[in-house]
Amino acid sequence: MSFSHVGTVIARWATKSSMSLIQEILNLKESESSSHSFPRRGPGGGCDRQSTFLSYLYSMAKLFNNQKFKYRRQLLRNNATRAEQLLWNKLKRRRLNGLKFRRQYSIGQYIVDFYLPSHKLAIEIDGPTHLSNQSILKDKTRTRFLKNNGISLLRYGNNEIYEGMENVLQSICEFLITTPQPPP
User: Fold this and answer.
1) To pair with 57 at 20 to 30 A between CA atoms, which of 24, 28, 99, 161?
2) What is the dihedral of CA 120, 80, 76, 92, to 10 degrees?
3) In 3D, which of 128, 122, 159, 117 has the Cα closest to residue 144?
4) Domain contains 153
């Protein structure tokens, strides 16, 4: 596989759907590992720019909206809590400053309630199930994982949504204004 083929895949980015592009990247990665056409990392093996770039694309394909979690994401979307439904009604269809939010989006092994890819911002709505000690530890682990992957996280409780939706929307807007947009 040559740089020209990688360039072709990148050129198709604008014309293909995300899922078909990710599948093509995964196919490239599989053919790379079976044909051993690239130098391997580690002792005795080199590391060229092409294999590093493909590894990066492969890791991104696995990090965001992994197909393994598709059914679970659908279940969560179809069984959203009242607070999630209320916030989603304010975020969907680019209603908040023209920004495209995703709902029940997987990042690594976690599924966040809302995600804004352009700003690498995740939003979680915490209900009563997040108050147990075990849930608090899981939330801390999730937050650390997201932070390590360059993703900011805002958390709101159900009551904040029910009693102060305008304050929640305002705090999201303030966060977006005060936090520089990360590079793509």
Assistant:
1) 99
2) -40
3) 122
4) yes
Q: Supply angle C-alpha 84, 85, 91, rounded to 5.
A: 85
Dihedral angle sign, alpha carbons of residues 104, 106, 112, 115: negative
CB atoms within 10 A of CB 136: 12
In a domain, 168, yes or no: yes
Is 183 within the bounds of a domain?
A: no
Claim to verify: residue 42 and residue 98 sit in the same structural domain: no
Question: What span, in angstroms and rounded, lies between the C-alpha atoms of 170 and 184?
Answer: 25
Give the burial class of 155: count Cβ atoms within 10 A of its Cβ; 0-12 exposed, 13-18 middle, 19 or more buried: middle
**Model pLDDT for residues 50-97, shown as the tens digit of each residue:** 666 666 655 556 799 889 999 999 999 999 999 999 999 999 999 999
Closest CA to 48 of 58, 56, 38, 57: 38
Distance, in Å, from the CA atom of 82 to the CA atom of 78, rounded to the nearest integer, reads 12
Query: Is 32 within a domain?
Result: yes
Residue 96 identity (one-letter amino acid): L
Q: What is the dihedral of CA 99, 105, 106, 112, to 10 degrees?
A: 90
Of 16, 43, 63, which closes a domain?
Answer: 63
- Of 184, 182, 157, the C-alpha closest to 171 is 157
Q: How far is CA 111 from CA 24, 34, 108, in A?
A: 24, 31, 8
